[in-house]
Amino acid sequence: MRTISAADLLALWERGASRHPLDRSALLYTCARPDQPTDAIADLRLGEINRRLLELRAAWFGDRIDAHVDCEHCGERLGLTIAVHELIRPANDSQPGEVTVADLRCRPPSLRDLAAIAGERDGVRAAHRLLARCLLEGNDSVAVDDERLREVEDALEAIDPDADFAFDVRCEACGQSGTAQLDPGTLLWDDVSARARALLGEVHQLACAYGWSEQHILALTPERRASYLSMVAP
Q1: 3-class SS of residue 103
Q2: Could you tell me the pTM of the whole model?
């Protein structure tokens, strides 16, 4: 998977800056799989989306992820260092497209399903609404209690394990344990946004110093751009 040029990264950032995070994930996926029809992306498994976005993140920004999470007990900020290659599982085309558990037939959720419940603030209601969307024909009238819901969630995770990345963390400040979630789409977009803003700053400095156009500045290699910046830095 190739790296991205400075000009292309700025164009990508401009296209996605005002979009919903789920739409950004779909946009980023088109960079990972330009051969994929855009109208089909919203219905892909979440695990497929996440795996491709992590591969893209490694290609563009490196294998190492430095992240943080706030302790849910005391609020202490905890640092996390994760390697992309340790997260990505090999693609398994033999995984079934549906699962039957607790007398329910259902399929793994997609970006379209998440978008449909994006406005739901209650976590339990959101989980039930998501399951209702994933139930296959003949199951839509079945009542699902919390225990059955957990059984179905476990079964869906088994056939689409990359749909959700959760980590057990322990706070060094208070000693309590908790869970941290990693959203590959948000992670990658944060990196794209940070790099885009840094590039805009570099363009501003060099344009002010030399009168060059944005196109000419972005066409410079990162090494040459850095050299010029070192000479005009205050």
Answers
A1: coil
A2: 0.90
89/95 Cα distance (integer angstroms): 13
Question: What number of other Cβ atoms are within 10 A of residue 150's Cβ?
Answer: 12
Label the pairing between strands 165-170 and 177-182: antiparallel
The answer, yes or no, to whether residue 230 has pLDDT greater than 80, is yes
Tens of pLDDT, residues 184-197: 999 999 999 999 99
Crossing angle of the two packed helices 184-210 and 222-232, in degrees rounded to 10: 50
DSSP tag of 162: G
Taking residues 102-111, report their average pLDDT. 90
Distance CA 31, CA 57 (A): 11
The DSSP string of 55-77 is HHHHHHH-SEEEEEEE-TTT--E
The Cβ-side half-sphere exposure at 141, using a 13 Å CA radius, reads 1
DSSP-derived 3-state class of residue 99: strand
Question: What are residue 155's phi and psi, to 5 degrees?
Answer: -70, -40
Instruction: Please give the Cα distance from 191 to 59 (Å, whole number).
Output: 12
Q: Where are the domains of the chain?
A: 6-192
